Amino acid sequence: MNIPVKALMVVFVGSGVGGLMRYGMQNWLSKTYPNAFPVGTFVVNILGCFLIGFFYALSQKNNLLSFELRLALTTGFCGGFTTFSTFAYENILLLKSGNYTVFAVYTLASIVLGIAAVLSGIYIVRQI
After folding, report:
1. Keywords, A to Z (predicted)?
2. Residues marked as binding for Na(+)?
3. CB 121 within 8 A of CB 114
4. Residue set of the binding site
5. How many Å apart are CA 22 and CA 84, to the nearest integer?
6. CB atoms near residue 100 (< 10 Å)
7. Calpha distance 11→15 (Å, rounded)
8. Is 71 within 8 Å of 11 (Cβ atoms)?
9. Rounded to an integer, what distance in angstroms lies between the CA atom of residue 60 and that of residue 31?
10. Measured distance CA(91)–CA(111) in Å, rounded
């Protein structure tokens, strides 16, 4: 497999920025809203879903984003910003601690609102 160095670099930079933003946002939200519901991961994942829908739709609308910029924003930034692994781990912690209602709400809301957020991002681009 021959991947261009430029593509690797833009994904590398985008994921670093996304990861740093996730870390900062998760910490701030967890301290601002301390409770059993993992609000930090929830917010970054839903926001990331919106952004990936927005960026992909933008890249397909009259080629507004170059291939490299699309890679940096979607695979890089959104990939580094969102976190399925933390979502899964937090669900295990909720189950272990007996927070079954929070587990159910977190899981269902993440899936339903995540898909709705992607669709919203696409819709907004189509309206502009």
Report:
1. Cell inner membrane, Cell membrane, Ion channel, Ion transport, Membrane, Metal-binding, Sodium, Transmembrane, Transmembrane helix, Transport
2. 79, 82
3. no
4. 79, 82
5. 12
6. 10
7. 6
8. yes
9. 38
10. 13
Residue with tokens 């940096």: 72
List, for residues 85-99, the tens digit of each pLDDT value. 999 999 999 999 999
Contact 68, 6 (CB under 8 A): yes
**pTM for this entry:** 0.92
pLDDT score of 63: 79
Alpha helices per DSSP H over the chain: 5-32, 39-60, 67-71, 79-81, 84-96, 100-127
Token representation of residue 112: 């339903």
Determine the Cα–Cα distance for residues 70 and 37; give it in Å rounded to an integer.
32
Residue 54, Cβ neighbours under 10 Å: how many?
A: 21
At 79 the three-state DSSP class reads helix
CA distance 35 to 57: 35
pLDDT at 122: 97
